[in-house]
Every structure is written in structure tokens, then in C-alpha cells.
Design goal:
Helices cover about 40% and strands about 15% of the residues. By secondary structure, the chain is α/β, with parallel strands linked by helices. A 3-stranded parallel β-sheet has the order 1-2-3, with helices on one face. Strand 6 and strand 7 form a beta hairpin. The chain is globular and about 65 Å long.
Length: about 300
């Protein structure tokens, strides 16, 4: 871990940044400033089919407009697939991953039989298809180049967790909006056999984010409340992979009048549009309910 706190903002370049992203970026940047820490920008572009170079350029422009600065070089996940593969290979050697050849249609049909079995995000819990395939069948399917994902064998992972920590739950420190810490205990088994390596790319968000936070020495993870539940899965992977534990702060989410979280897919008003309309960074802070940073003159005023 760094002697100084390290924070990061890690957007995916699959659409334009909106006010929700501005809130997250500014909260992380402000915390880094308050703690005298470092601030990193990470481009989470593992989804190479949806991510576009123009969106990366727009991210740089939007953050600079908000008055945010970051360290160079910027880590782009698409350039580090071998690093994530090394982590998944280690989990494979430990017997904690298994190949799942099931299609979305097969999984959807199977989950209809268990409508009440859902993960913390409310999605149907994986029903265990292909979890116990004979080695011979796996070999045949691999030889046929059938696409597959690698899923976490949660039962074995929890056993491994207990062997390391003596408990079958994980803990983490959560900072509230005033910076007060609280120790949280949470059960990663609620996620079931989560996807750790996707069919279409050699990692998943869950694996890449913990690997990158570890190797970049991130000490404080600031992100939206919608990722709070995922912290149990991330802490499980961090513990098994021997990665350091950061402190977490899951901030409030911005929603529309119907209570829906702002999103790229809904094409909520982007920061570029606001900038083009003549809105400035101070107005954005005011709209988000964030404090206005003091000018050098104000800081020196008695």
C-alpha cells in the first residue's frame, strides 16, 4: 500500500458521462484532496465491443472541465488481459472455477423454476447448470471450441475463505458521508456461482476491479451505492488472491423524478450537453449539492 491514500475513478467508455458520473468522480477527487492523497483515472474497457475511443476522449474532456486532475499514465484494462488471466489461472489451480457452457436461453429456462432465488442485485441466481460436468465431457466441449464462461465454485470459495480467515463471511470498513467508519460483515455466498471470466472477454468486472485496485495500491474505493452488495464478492476475491483490503465509501445515487438511477443506456443528459449549454463546473457542483472548493485567496484569508 502507498504511504499516501490512493483513490480512483474508473468509468467505462461505452457512452457519455452524465451527472451521476460527475458526482462519483468529484466525491473521489475531493476525498483525495482532503486526505492529501493521489487520484487515479482508470478506463474500464474490457467490453471491447461496446467501448469506443471517442468516449475515452470525452471522459478526459469532461473530467478536465469539472476541474479534476489525475496521475499519468492512465490504466486501460483492455491492455492488461494477461494480468487478469494470471489471476483466473490461479483460481483455477485452486479448484475454485469451473467452465459453464450454458447459453442465456438455457439459464433463463432453468431459473424460471426458482423465481424466488435471486442475487443481491435482484437477478436470477445461477441454477448450477454444468457445475458437475464430468471431466470427459468438459474435455470434449473444449475440443469443439464451445464458448464458455468461468464461474466461481462458491461452496469451495467459502471453504477457502474459512481456511484463510477462520470465518465464512467477509468484513470491510465502510465510511459514511461524514467519514465515520463502520465495520460491516456480509455474506458473499449470496451471489452464488458468479461469473469470474466472461465468454466474450478474458475477465469480468468483478475480477478486473479487484486485481487493478490491488496492483494500483488503491486504499479508498469510492463508488455508487448500487455496488455496495458487490463488495462481499470483491472482498472474497481479494482475500483468496492475497490482495490488500481498501476502505470503501458507497455514495448516494442520482435519480430522476421516478426514482430511476441515471444511466447511459437511458441516454440521460450527458456532461458534454451541459457544457455546450454554457453550464460551468461550479454550477455542476451546486446542482450535485457538493461544496465549492476554496480559492487560494479564501484559504489564506484569516
Amino acid at each position: 500500500m502507498s504511504a499516501r491514500p490512493v483513490l480512483r475513478f474508473a468509468p467505462s467508455p461505452n457512452g457519455e458521462l452524465h451527472l451521476g458520473h460527475a458526482l462519483s468522480a468529484l466525491i473521489g477527487f475531493d476525498m483525495a484532496e482532503k486526505l492529501g492523497g493521489r487520484f487515479l483515472l482508470r478506463i474500464e474497457d474490457i467490453d471491447t465491443t461496446r467501448c469506443r475511443e471517442e468516449y475515452i476522449t470525452h471522459i478526459y474532456e469532461d473530467l478536465a472541465w469539472l476541474g479534476i486532475t489525475w496521475e499519468e499514465p492512465v490504466l486501460r484494462q483492455s491492455l492488461h488481459f494477461t494480468t487478469y488471466s494470471a489471476a483466473s489461472d490461479w483460481l483455477l489451480k485452486l479448484g475454485l472455477l469451473y467452465p459453464c457452457f450454458a447459453t442465456r436461453a438455457e439459464i433463463g429456462e432453468a431459473t424460471e423454476l426458482f423465481p424466488d432465488a435471486v442475487d443481491p442485485d435482484g437477478a436470477p441466481l445461477y441454477p448450477g447448470l454444468h457445475k458437475h460436468l464430468p471431466k470427459e465431457e468438459i474435455a470434449v466441449r473444449l475440443a469443439r471450441n464451445e464458448p464458455f464462461a468461468l464461474r466461481l465454485h462458491m461452496d469451495r470459495a467459502i471453504d477457502a475463505l474459512e481456511g484463510i480467515t477462520g470465518t465464512r463471511h467477509v468484513t470491510f470498513t465502510e465510511l459514511d458521508e461524514h467519514g465515520n467508519p463502520q465495520r460491516i460483515e456480509i455474506n458473499p455466498a449470496d451471489w452464488g456461482d458468479a461469473v469470474i471470466v466472461r465468454k466474450d472477454t478474458p475477465t469480468s468486472y468483478h475480477l478486473a476491479v479487484v486485481v487493478d485496485d490491488g496492483r494500483q495500491g488503491v486504499t479508498h474505493v469510492t463508488r455508487g451505492r448500487d455496488l455496495y452488495a458487490a463488495t462481499s464478492l470483491h472482498r472474497l476475491l481479494q482475500t483468496i488472491l492475497g490482495l490488500p483490503e481498501p476502505v470503501y465509501h458507497h455514495h448516494r445515487l442520482l435519480t430522476d423524478t421516478d426514482g430511476r438511477k441515471l444511466s447511459k443506456s437511458a441516454r440521460d443528459t450527458g456532461l458534454r450537453e451541459l457544457r455546450a449549454a454554457g453550464i460551468d463546473a461550479l454550477q455542476i457542483r451546486h446542482r450535485l449539492g457538493l461544496p465549492i472548493p476554496a480559492t487560494p485567496a479564501q484559504e489564506n484569508h484569516p
